């Protein structure tokens, strides 16, 4: 790494955003003459087709901390969440269609990515229902899963998720765990920031407690009155707990709402971890670089 020129170098499996003004800790990519990567896929940046295979060099010289989303970045629970959301909304929409005689239109993967992924549970319910022109009474936290309220649907979804978690356990992305270990060995502090109210349970079940210095999950956010992603408040709280300035912290996110939150918070670098969806979708949401494999992120101790 050239000293004084932070932080993007060019490897495989990532796409970098072209910006006229570089944010702190972010370099810029350039087109490859072929316009394709080794796998034959076209890269995109800012709507321009180009082979900008890039990965971030996370240097202790440039950054003091890394803030990780949980589901879909460190753990494979995002697919369990997605399946639980589909189970919830399809059952609700089917029952409603039978009552009203309106056609049944199922919950789709795009619905999940656009309205639910990365958001607090109740906010996800409100956003999706609004997208269909529907509203429900808010209800209260005491509502059971049978209640046709926002809180009732939230309880129903959580029960489906926890049942799946008990059946299937918690899988982790090995490159994410390895990256956490490398960052901590280089002297960076780490935090997990998740909208899930089950964050503590998932971290414990995955055996990851020793890899995070702080945790801001849905329970902590509710206790402290912090709005969820795409607002940056939960990431900013994690930075505060770690004692670092946002500009000296990296955010790693797989959800559009979380990427947007990192951008709004003024963090030093926002890494979009694309597990699904079209190439460039996280760049469009505000990521500085988009990767599909966290093993491409390099860590340097700095001087």
Structure notes:
The protein is of the alpha/beta class. The chain has two domains: 8-75 and 171-300, HAD superfamily/HAD-like (Rossmann fold); 77-168, no CATH class. It contains ten helices and twelve strands. The strands form three sheets. Strands 2-11-10-9-6-7-8 form a seven-stranded mixed β-sheet. Helix 1 packs across helix 4, helix 2 crosses helix 3 (121-131) and helix 3 (121-131) packs across helix 4. The radius of gyration is 20 Å and the shape is elongated. The relative contact order is 0.19.
Low-confidence stretches: 1-13, 24-54
**Main sheet, how many strands, which sense, barrel?**
7 strands, mixed
CATH-derived topology of the largest domain: Rossmann fold
Question: What is the CATH class designation of the largest domain?
Answer: Alpha Beta
What is this structure's SSE topology?
Layout: E1 8-9, E2 14-16, E3 44-45, E4 48-49, E5 55-59, E6 65-68, H1 77-100, H2 109-116, H3 121-131, H4 150-168, H5 174-185, E7 189-193, H6 199-205, E8 214-216, H7 218-224, H8 233-242, E9 249-253, H9 256-264, E10 269-273, H10 281-285, E11 289-291, E12 298-300
Parallel strand pairs: 5-12, 6-7, 6-9, 7-8, 9-10, 10-11
Antiparallel strand pairs: 1-5, 2-11, 3-4
Helix pairs in contact: 1-4, 2-3, 3-4
